[in-house]
From TrEMBL:
The keyword Membrane applies. Its EC number is 2.7.7.65. It holds the Pfam family GGDEF. It catalyses: 2 GTP = 3',3'-c-di-GMP + 2 diphosphate. Residues 255-385 form the GGDEF domain. InterPro entries: Diguanylate_Cyclase, GGDEF_dom, Nucleotide_cyclase, Rev_trsase/Diguanyl_cyclase. It comes from the Bacteria. The keyword Ribonucleoprotein does not apply. This is diguanylate cyclase. The chain crosses the membrane at residues 50-71, 77-98, 110-129, 135-159, 166-185, 197-222. SUPFAM superfamilies: Nucleotide cyclase.
């Protein structure tokens, strides 16, 4: 079964050449394994599109009110007009007042509110329309209300959603269609009713496919944008974004969060003696060797030149020391002259240092890295080292 699923995913991903690899296939099904940076950027995109969609509905919803007042009988026209005004107010609230922190949960909540408003509007308006026998132009206008679920389901296509998210958000709209049919159980044309339901399911499937394709393209773009092209580690800009997210999460939960500032020893000598091309080979080798020894949640950032920053969530300074000493003992590969490639490492823990800002945490780790260089290089220095008097040393 596992082999079948793997083969199936490979074939499906073959339809998206160059966008995803098989290891990222599960990212299209569920958001569970998305990296924090990816989740944050997707949340921002979803919130922006929620406001865009709400703006459109806030303009179009009240405009149709005048058609209802001209064509539909009273008091139905006024009831629907009040319903439209209420929905317009809710859409305006999303546009102007819903400004939450950018998290995936808040993005989901924004989508839930956005689609709950017209879904409830559809059910209530359908119930109101069942009390009237409409003919001619009134019947045509009343029939137009039945198309709202189709519009909503098609609207999912503008959001970069996983398959699971698409199913969860589409389900209430399909249930609303069935609920509306229940209120007209005795007079509903069931073949037409289930035909419309099948068409809604088809539209939901196409919208889900569009959302998944958007997500695949977004993942590919984010992966290209956040990675350093030489080493495969996170670039400094994206690393700062991940660092800020990790720092905020750790601060809220009270969990430990350690960082390690790493500088390759005597790297300038490699460039001077063997050339910058060989230096690039050493950087790539160092990053790959280091990454192989990391946990799944650890993040390696190329901070600049031969400097790297390692983010170690949920471990304190002592645990980080043990992990880094193990990595150092295993080695980082060989220099061009076949001597061991070594590094000087400074470690700092958010809780132990009492840092309120991630930049302060990086500064402490950076100073400890310089202390490691001053004390002979090829070593790890953590919290016991006083950092106030340390001065930078040569690489």
């Amino acid at each position: 079964m596992t082999i079948f699923h793997s083969t199936t995913w490979v074939k499906l991903l073959g339809l998206l050449p160059g966008e995803l690899n098989p290891n990222e296939a599960s990212w299209l099904v569920t958001p569970q394994h998305h990296m924090p940076l990816m989740s944050n950027r997707r949340a921002q995109m979803i919130l922006n599109r929620v406001r865009l969609f709400a703006s459109l509905f806030a303009v179009l919803t009240p405009l149709w009110m005048f058609v209802d007042l001209l064509v539909l009988p009273n008091p139905l026209a006024w009831q629907l007009a009040l319903l439209r005004l209420g929905a317009t107010g809710c859409f305006a609230f999303i546009v102007y007042c819903y400004r939450p922190e950018v998290t995936l949960f808040n993005a989901w909540r924004g989508m839930a509110m956005l689609f709950a408003i017209p879904t409830l509007f559809y059910v209530v308006s359908y119930v109101l329309l069942t009390h009237y026998q409409l003919t001619g132009a009134s019947a045509a206008v009343g029939t137009g209300y039945a198309f709202l679920p189709f519009i909503l389901l098609a609207g999912f296509a503008i959001f970069p959603l996983t398959l699971l998210e698409s199913v969860i958000f589409a389900a209430p709209i399909l249930v609303a269609h069935v609920t509306a049919g229940y209120f007209q159980f005795s007079v509903v044309d069931w073949p037409s009713f289930w035909g419309a339901f099948w068409l809604q399911g088809l539209i939901a499937g196409v919208a889900a496919l569009a959302g998944v394709c958007q997500l695949a393209f977004m993942i590919a773009l984010v992966q290209q944008a956040v990675r350093d092209p030489l080493t495969g580690a996170f670039s400094r800009r994206s690393g700062e974004e991940v660092l800020e997210l990790q720092f905020i999460l750790a601060s809220r939960s009270g969990s430990p969060f350690s960082v390690a500032f790493i500088d390759i020893d005597h790297f300038k000598a490699i460039n001077d003696q063997f050339g910058h091309q060989q230096g690039d080979v050493m950087l790539k080798q160092f990053a790959q060797t280091l990454t192989q020894g990391l946990r799944k949640g650890d993040v390696l950032v190329r901070w600049g030149g031969e400097e790297f920053l390692l983010l170690l969530p949920n471990i304190d300074c002592r645990q980080a020391m043990h992990a880094l000493q193990r990595l150092r003992r295993n080695g980082f590969g060989l220099r061009p002259e076949q001597t061991p490639l070594t590094a000087s490492i400074g470690v700092a823990d958010m809780l132990e240092e009492g840092c309120n800002d991630w930049r302060q945490l990086i500064e402490i780790a950076d100073q400890r890295m310089y202390a490691a260089k001053q004390q002979g290089r090829n070593r790890v220095i953590a919290g016991s080292e006083p950092v106030a008097s340390l001065q930078p040393a040569l690489a």
